[in-house]
Amino acid sequence: MHSAPISIAAIVIGRNEGDRLVQCLTSLRGFDRIVYVDSGSTDGSVEMAQGRGVEVVALDMRQKFTAARARNAGIAQLSGSNPPEFVQFLDGDCELQGGWLDQAKAHLIAHPDIAVVCGRRRERFPDASLYNAQCDREWDTPIGQARACGGDALMRFDAVQQVGGYNPGLIAGEEPEMCVRLRAKGWKIWRIDVEMALHDAAMTRFSQYWKRARRSGHAFAEGAFLHGSPPEKHFVSETKRSALWGLGIPALIVFLSLISPWALMLIWVYPAQILRMARRDGFTKLGWQTAILLTLAKFAEGQGVLEFHLRRLLNRPAGLIEYK
φ and ψ at 57, to 5 degrees? Predict the structure, then answer.
């Protein structure tokens, strides 16, 4: 049992989030310190945060920006003679839910082998578009021990420091990658059945959904390249599926069609895949929407996989893939 108060800090990252950042910072009650890491905002975010007494770190934008680098800047700000015991990471387009902090803190205190605890992240406007609704479904992952967390989570500060924080070179997938290293040190990741945060994806166009899926494909490929060997096999199956459905089958269809136009019939494998996935959800409207979106996403993910490996082979730095 802990007799002394637990020190808890929050690290928020963002750029030009506007009112979303106001809601985010307002939701952070009960924290001993709040650090906002800004990546070149021009909408007054820095001044607004400073006016609320928040510690602000302005990233040097002459260096390549990544969310991982921003989070590491927040970690560096909190390091020193009195670092916090726990740290809540939160994206600037999210709002922490009431009751989350107390329950997440209690879970970490009761389980000293757990380094990261996360909860249910929901979309603020799931009915605004098919793409927001799909995000909301993706956030709903199983309760219990997990392999990774997302961008919002309460963590033990010393565990994060033990593994050197986030990999600043990753343009996506930085949380799962750090969780790989945490689990290698014997730490556990846990998701509890508690409302954690509201997120505003603000996706209203298919092009945004495509970019988001393309970024996921890049993250899958890079994660598999870094930690794909046994026993971890990090993102290996995800990369294989993206490469097969987004690259391999289309390439095979094109190649075989040069030999026989009948090979174009193979394209029906995609409607068959949609049918199979929709049947799994009982052929509901939601099931059809999910099946179609997930199948289309495989082409974007395949593009991301290809881009990562081309960049790696050509020794070119990765650029951000932003969908909003």
Answer: -115, 120
Q: Which residues contact 100 (CB under 8 A, 6 or more apart)?
A: 119, 194, 195, 196, 197
Instruction: Give domain 8-204's CATH number out of 1.10.101.10, 1.10.150.110, 3.90.550.10, 3.40.50.720.
Output: 3.90.550.10
Query: What would the DSSP string read from start to end of 241-293?
Result: HHHIIIIIHHHHHHHHHTT-GGGGGGGGHHHHHHHHHHHHTTT-HHHHHHHHH
Cβ atoms < 10 Å from Cβ of 282: 8
- DSSP element (H, E) containing 299: helix 285-314
Q: Which of 136, 231, 153, 236 is nearest to 190 (CA)?
A: 153
Per-residue pLDDT of 39-85, as tens digits, reads: 988 999 999 999 999 999 999 888 888 999 999 999 999 998 799 99
For the record, the structure tokens of 313 come out as: 């082979």
pTM for this entry: 0.93
As given in the structure block, the two tokens for residue 279 are 């049947």
Q: Which two tokens stand for residue 174?
A: 């930085």
Mean pLDDT over 235-259 rounds to: 97
Torsions phi, psi for 100 (to 5 deg): -65, -50
